[in-house]
Predict the 3D structure of the following.
Amino acid sequence: MHRNPLLQLLANHQPFNQEEAQFKEQMIEFVNQNPDCFERSLLIGHITGSAWIVDKSRQFTLLTHHRKLDKWFQTGGHCDGDSDVLNVAMKEAREETGLTDIQAVSTEVFDIDIHEIPERKGVPTHLHYDVRFLLEADMNEPLIISSESSDLAWIELSKVSQLNDSQSIMRMINKF
């Protein structure tokens, strides 16, 4: 079954706090109940893959200012049928930053989050079941802003809350 690798990753994941533990339970249930969980055509929600990109010193993270949502986030996006969520996170990181030299720090899940995406252009409000991986990149490599973003920036971890202090982002910061 194409969902088994993700279910195994989720089973192995050790939640950071009670909120993430609840997300883990909900995500496992969602994946088990929805064979098409990797397709954005599943309008109740779908699996997405994200990259928490850090520099080699682990003092900075690369964030993108999302054009549609007008907020700073990690890179990431829809699986569009790809059940290899790490592959999705890596692909999205490259596409959204222009970076070519990105490595996964681990093939294990770094963080999981479930968040609501507002209705837009006829697509109803739905959930993103976001599987996040820790990636590493060189801060000196040039960045290329994609059409999905209005900006990209390496932000010192201690200053990320000035741009986005959501529980979702702060949980990843607190894992360092």
In short: The chain has one domain: 4-174. The chain has a mean pLDDT of 95.
